[in-house]
Design goal:
Helix content: 25-40%
Number of helices: 25
Strand order of the largest sheet: 9-8-11-10-12-13-14
Largest sheet: 7 strands, mixed
Radius of gyration: 32 Å
Distance between the termini: 41 Å
Shape: flat
Oligomer: single chain
C-alpha cells in the first residue's frame, strides 16, 4: 500500500532552498547526502537551480511524474500546495510544516482543510508537523533530522523499523542504535496523523523483508482496535513490537460504580492488552534498543537456563546475580563438559557455571562455546569480555561470529569496559551486537524469553470463538432504563450465559421474604435491591445468617426502613432473599468495557483484599481457558488458591470456567454493558465449585 511512498522513483521538494538554516535546505542536504538514486525536483518560486539540480517555480511546472511530494512551506500555503500536488496526480506527500492542530485556532482549521483534500483526492499524507522518514536500505532520507549524521548501516542486514509519534525521539533512537552497531530498516515520524497513521506504517513494515522487529514510541492510539489487529498480525509473522507507551499518569481516570471499574484504569487496561498481544514495553531509549538487539540473531529462547563465559570473575558473579534476579537459572556444568573445558582453561579459572576462562585465556571463548553450545540444559549463553582493545576480537572474532550464527541457542555478547573504536569496527564487520551494561544485556535476554513464551502460546491466546448473539434472557436483563443494575438483574444476565448461581428470590414485602426463605430452607441472607443504592452495606441494607421466620420478617422490615432513610428518593425494588454460601476463599471477577480497547475481564482477591492489596489481573475478552488460568496463576494470592498453611486447594478449574463464561458475556454485551462487578465469589475446595455472592452491573447509557 505504501510502496511508492517509501520507495519513490521521483521526489519533488516544495520549499527547496540552498539556505541550510531553513528546513527546505536541510532536507536537500540530507536527501542528497544519503545518495537518493531517483529523480529529484526542487521547487522554488525564485531560484532556477538548487544544489546543482534544475528548480521549478511550482509543482505544476515539473515536467515529469512525481511519486512523492515533500512540502516545507508556511502553514497557510500548505492546503493550496497539497491541492496542486493532487491535481498533478501525485499520490504521496510528507508535510513538514508546523502550525496546525498542535496550535489550535486557525491551525486546526488548516488541518481540517488538509483532511478534506485527502478524503476528496485520495492523496496519502504523512504529517503535518512531521520530521519525515528514512528508508535506510533504499537511501530515501525524506527528513531534515540531523540524527542521520552517523555511521552508515551494516551491509544487507535485516534490521529494526522505528515508528514514532515524536520525530525527535524516533530519529534519536536511530542515532543511538547506529552508534551501537544496530541495523535499521526505516524510521518514520508520524506527525499529526491527518491521514496516514501509526497502524499504516506498522503494517507496511510488517510486510517488509528487511524489517525484523518494530520499535514504537506511542503517546496515544488513534485507532486502538485496529492496532490490536496489527499486533496480532505481527505475532503471526513473528516480528516483535517493542513499545515505549507514554502518558501513563493516573490523572483523569473516571470513578466507577464497581470495584472493577474503579481499579481497571486506562493504564492497567493498556498494559493488559499489550501484554496479551505480546507487545514488549521499555522505559527508556536504551532499554528499547537492548530489547530490539536481542532479536537480531533471529532465534528463540526455549527455556530460562543461562550459561556465562567470562574473563572477569567479578563480572561473572554480577551477571549471575542479575540473571537470577530477573528470573533465569545459572545451572552447573556437567562433569564431562567440565573435563573438556579443563583441557584449555587455567587451573585458577573455573569450569563450572559461570565459566571463568581468566584474563590469560585469550583464545578460549570459541572453544568454550563449542563445548557448551549443544548442552540440552543451556538455553542461552552470555559472553562477557573487555573490548577496550581489539586483541581478542582479532584473534577469535571470526570463530565467535561463526558459532553465534551456527548454534541453535542465542549468544549475547557483553563488554564490561567501553569498547574501542577499532573493536566496534570489527564487531560491525562481523555482524555482532555488543551490550555495554549488565542490566541491558539481561533485560534483552528477558525480552527474548518472554517473546519466545508468547510465541509458544499463540494458539492458546487467540484461539477464541466469535462473540455469541445475545440470549433472550440477557436482552431482558439489559432492558432497564437505570444505568446501575440491581444485584438480581445482574444475576439474571449471568444466568443467561449459563453461569451457576445460588438459590435466591426477590421479595417485594417482608411477608414474601418469609415465604421465599422457607422455600430456600436453612439460613439466608437479605439484601436491599435498588439501582440507586449500589453499595448496600453502607445503607444498612444487608443482613446475614437469618434462620427463623421472625428473624427474616424483622430483618426485611429493618432493611427497607434503613434504605428509605439512607436514600429517601431511591427506587426500591424489594429485598433479595439468598441462601447462605458455604465457606470458601473470597475472590472477585469483573468486566470493564474500555472505550479504546473494548471489553476486559478482571480477576483478583475479593472482599476487603481488593482495595487493600489490589492483587488483580486483566485480559481482553473473550478468553481461552489457557488465558484464564494464566490470569489466576499471575495473582500474588495464587498460593492461597493452591492451598496454603495446611488448607485444602481451592477449585481453580471452576474459577477459570467462570472467567471464560464471563468473558463471553463481556464480548456479547459490549454495546450494552459498561462494567460488571462480581464480589465476593466464594471459591470452595477442589471439585466443589464456587458461589457467586454478590454482583452489580452498569448499563451503557441510552441516547434518545
Amino acid at each position: 500500500m505504501l510502496e511508492t511512498f517509501f520507495n519513490p522513483t521521483s521526489i519533488a521538494l516544495i520549499g527547496a532552498t540552498d539556505d541550510a538554516t531553513k528546513i527546505g535546505g536541510k532536507i536537500v542536504l540530507t536527501l542528497l547526502r544519503e545518495k537518493y538514486a531517483g529523480r529529484f525536483y526542487p521547487v522554488n518560486r525564485t531560484s532556477s537551480r538548487i544544489a546543482g539540480h534544475a528548480a521549478y517555480p511550482s509543482i505544476g511546472a515539473v515536467p515529469d511524474s512525481v511519486d512523492l511530494a515533500l512540502i516545507a512551506v508556511p502553514a497557510r500555503q500548505v492546503p493550496g500546495t497539497l491541492e496542486e500536488c493532487a491535481a498533478k496526480g501525485i499520490r504521496n506527500a510528507v508535510i513538514f510544516s508546523s502550525g496546525f492542530s498542535e496550535e489550535g485556532g486557525e491551525g486546526a482549521a488548516l488541518q481540517r482543510q488538509i483532511e478534506d483534500i485527502c478524503q476528496r483526492t485520495g492523496i496519502r499524507v504523512n504529517g503535518p508537523n512531521s520530521e519525515g522518514f528514512f528508508n535506510v536500505h533504499a537511501g530515501v532520507a525524506a527528513t531534515f533530522s540531523p540524527a542521520l549524521d552517523v555511521l552508515g548501516p551494516p551491509r544487507g542486514s535485516v534490521g529494526t523499523g522505528i515508528v514514532s509519534q515524536s520525530g525527535g525521539l524516533g530519529f534519536a533512537l536511530y542515532n543511538r542504535g547506529r552508534q551501537r552497531n544496530m541495523a535499521f530498516s526505516h524510521i518514520v515520524s508520524v506527525g499529526n496523523q491527518v491521514d496516514l497513521e501509526l497502524n499504516d506504517y506498522i503494517e507496511h513494515l510488517l510486510g517488509d523483508p528487511a524489517t525484523g522487529n518494530v520499535m514504537l514510541y506511542v503517546e496515544s492510539f488513534r485507532k486502538p482496535k485496529r492496532f490490536l489487529d496489527v499486533a496480532k498480525r505481527a505475532a503471526q509473522l513473528q516480528k516483535p513490537l517493542i513499545m515505549a507507551k507514554v502518558g501513563r499518569s493516573r490523572a483523569g481516570q473516571r470513578a466507577a460504580a464497581s470495584h472493577t471499574g474503579a481499579m481497571a484504569g486506562s493504564v492497567r487496561v493498556t498494559d493488559a492488552v499489550l501484554d496479551h498481544h505480546g507487545v514488549l514495553r521499555a522505559n527508556d531509549q536504551d532499554e528499547m534498543l537492548d530489547l530490539a538487539a536481542a532479536f537480531s540473531q533471529g532465534k528463540r529462547m526455549r527455556g530460562n537456563r543461562v550459561a556465562i563465559i567470562s574473563t572477569s570473575g567479578g563480572t561473572a558473579v554480577w551477571l549471575t546475580d542479575t540473571c537470577e534476579e530477573m528470573g533465569f537459572e545459572v545451572l552447573p556444568i556437567d562433569d564431562e563438559r567440565q573435563a573438556r573445558l579443563a583441557q584449555f582453561i587455567p587451573s585458577y579459572g573455573s569450569t563450572n557455571n559461570p565459566v571463568d576462562i581468566t584474563a590469560q585465556g585469550v583464545n578460549a571463548y570459541a572453544q568454550t562455546l563449542e563445548v557448551l553450545g549443544d548442552a540440552d540444559y543451556i538455553d542461552a549463553i552470555i559472553i562477557a569480555s573487555s573490548f577496550a582493545h581489539d586483541t581478542r576480537l582479532k584473534k577469535e572474532g571470526e570463530a565467535i561470529a561463526r558459532l553465534v550464527k551456527e548454534l541453535d541457542i542465542p549468544v549475547f555478547i557483553y563488554t564490561y569496559t567501553l569498547p574501542s573504536a577499532s573493536s566496534m569496527q570489527i564487531l560491525q564487520r562481523l555482524g555482532l551486537f555488543c551490550y555495554s551494561t549488565i542490566t541491558g544485556c539481561v533485560r534483552g535476554l528477558q525480552g527474548l524469553r518472554a517473546y519466545s513464551k508468547f510465541q509458544e502460546e499463540l494458539n492458546d491466546r487467540f484461539g477464541v470463538p466469535d462473540a455469541q448473539a445475545l440470549p433472550t434472557g440477557a436482552r431482558r436483563a439489559l432492558e432497564g432504563t437505570e444505568a446501575t443494575m440491581c444485584e438480581y438483574e445482574t444475576k439474571h444476565l449471568l444466568a443467561a450465559f449459563d453461569i451457576e448461581l445460588p438459590a435466591e428470590h426477590l421479595a417485594k414485602t417482608p411477608q414474601e421474604a418469609v415465604v421465599h426463605a422457607a422455600d430456600i430452607g436453612g439460613a439466608v441472607a437479605l439484601k436491599v435491591q435498588s439501582p440507586h443504592i449500589p453499595h448496600k452495606t453502607e445503607a444498612g441494607g444487608v443482613l446475614l445468617k437469618l434462620e427463623t421466620s421472625d428473624a427474616v420478617r424483622q430483618g426485611a422490615e429493618a432493611i427497607l426502613t434503613n434504605a428509605r432513610l439512607h436514600a429517601p428518593s431511591a427506587d426500591i425494588h424489594g429485598v433479595l432473599v439468598q441462601a447462605m454460601g458455604k465457606p470458601g476463599l473470597e475472590m472477585m471477577a469483573g468486566i470493564v468495557n474500555d472505550a479504546s480497547f473494548g471489553p476486559m475481564v478482571m480477576v483478583g482477591l475479593g472482599g476487603i483484599y481488593v482495595e487493600v492489596l489490589e492483587d488483580t489481573a486483566l485480559a481482553p475478552a473473550p478468553l481461552t481457558a489457557h488465558t484464564a488460568l494464566k490470569m489466576v496463576q499471575s495473582l500474588k494470592g495464587y498460593p492461597m488458591l493452591r492451598g496454603a498453611r495446611g488448607r485444602p486447594p481451592c477449585d481453580v478449574p471452576a474459577l477459570c470456567q467462570l472467567l471464560v463464561k464471563l468473558s463471553q458475556l463481556a464480548a456479547s454485551t459490549r454495546d450494552h454493558l459498561v462494567e460488571m462487578d462480581i464480589n465476593p465469589i466464594l471459591v470452595h475446595e477442589q471439585g466443589v465449585g464456587l458461589t457467586i455472592v454478590d454482583a452489580l452491573g452498569v448499563r451503557t447509557p441510552r441516547h434518545e
